[in-house]
């Protein structure tokens, strides 16, 4: 029986690893989150540390090529272009057309829309100006029954996000306190032994 090749992350220490999980459509985990993780990874890890992208989509329309295209585009796009596209307010995803060409596409988030602003789909699709590809239109691939986001929806979404952030910060502080107490208990028992 032949030995399996080691995965790239198996030879790296835990503090040098980062796994970015990019999931399928309408999952709520987008490339905006991945971009933040990649930025943190690049800022805090050695240049030789492995970056592993895991594609978990089951959608036939989303090929591996499409997922790679979105992740690579996000990593390589100049910051000015990302700023112009309001990338920090977008959940980025990927799409492939009937010719299996991969494209980067904005995805809709319930209560937030595409960019955190009120837009009426079909009235004027901003993405039509950017690319001639039909697949990039917001109305293409849109979930059935979804209604256009309102200003009130966006306010509720931001309030919920702020509340979630506060709760996560409280959990982080609680966890740090627990770890600090355990460390001091460990040090005291080491002194007593």
From TrEMBL:
UniProt keyword terms in alphabetical order: Lipid biosynthesis, Lipid metabolism, NADP, Oxidoreductase
Any one cellular-component term (Gene Ontology): lipid droplet
Gene Ontology BP terms: ergosterol biosynthetic process
GO MF annotation terms: 3-beta-hydroxysteroid 3-dehydrogenase (NADP+) activity
Protein known as: 3-ketosteroid reductase
Organism annotation: Ophiocordyceps sinensis (strain Co18 / CGMCC 3.14243)
């Amino acid at each position: 029986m032949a030995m399996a090749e080691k995965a790239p992350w198996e030879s790296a220490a835990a503090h040098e690893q980062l796994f970015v999980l990019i999931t399928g459509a309408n999952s709520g985990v987008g490339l905006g989150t991945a971009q933040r993780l990649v930025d943190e990874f690049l800022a805090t890890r050695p240049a030789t540390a492995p970056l592993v992208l895991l594609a978990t989509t089951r959608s036939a329309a989303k090929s591996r090529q499409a997922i790679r295209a979105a992740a690579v585009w996000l990593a390589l796009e100049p910051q000015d272009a990302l700023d112009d596209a309001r990338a920090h307010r977008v959940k980025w995803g990927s799409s492939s057309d009937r010719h299996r060409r991969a494209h980067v596409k904005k995805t809709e988030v319930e209560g937030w829309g595409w960019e955190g602003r009120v837009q009426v789909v079909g009235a004027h699709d901003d993405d039509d100006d950017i690319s001639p590809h039909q697949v990039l239109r917001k109305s293409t691939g849109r979930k059935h029954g979804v209604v256009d986001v309102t200003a009130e929806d966006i306010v509720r979404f931001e309030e919920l996000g702020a509340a979630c952030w506060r709760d996560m910060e409280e959990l982080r502080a609680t966890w740090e306190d627990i770890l600090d107490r355990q460390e001091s208990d460990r040090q005291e028992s080491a002194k007593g032994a």
